[in-house]
Amino acid sequence: GQQVMQIPQYQHVQEGEDFTTYCNSSTTLSNIQWYKQRPGGHPVFLIQLVKSGEVKKQKRLTFQFGEAKKNSSLHITATQTTDVGTYFCAGIGGATNKLIFGTGTLLAVQP
Amino acid sequence: NAGVMQNPRHLVRRRGQEARLRCSPMKGHSHVYWYRQLPEEGLKFMVYLQKENIIDESGMPKERFSAEFPKEGPSILRIQQVVRGDSAAYFCASSPPDHEGYEQYFGPGTRLTVT
Prior knowledge:
The complex is a heterodimer. By secondary structure, chain A is mainly beta. Chain A contains no helices and eleven strands.
């Protein structure tokens, strides 16, 4: 079945450093979404990308959708302690319209 | 506009008991999704429902688990004869009608502990 993998599983950075998580799907995706889940919390929608090669920015966050629509990345510039949490990508692809979540990347930020 | 509501937030059940988890989607939303999250793991899709219809239940275990979304009232995820392996956080999400593929709004989750 369709699989969505993320790397790394865990990243520990010093506050102010940059952070990137990568998302790879085994199948072509019609769109890619990104969610953030704080420890003990629930996933919160961040953004959706639809077009091949699309790049979107939200303040210090930059999201990219690959040309082949099988991969995506999230880059955070100058991390802050408020960025702590697990970042999930999620994509719709294949024969169904259900959202398949990636394995997640847990970001820890040391002040 | 209230967000997605789930109750109870925490549920403790002994092995063999039944667990009922409720989800009220956002106002105006008619698509409901249930996910399970084991500790330190990602979200696993369980079932996708619209009012009175199960659209996709490919992620639901074949036995003991069932879900419904009646015409009136919340969506219910029911787990019969719970076992320790059912301990997890169960999240419900909703999205507007005619918006498959759009963002999903998650509830706070129900944390089920089976003792």
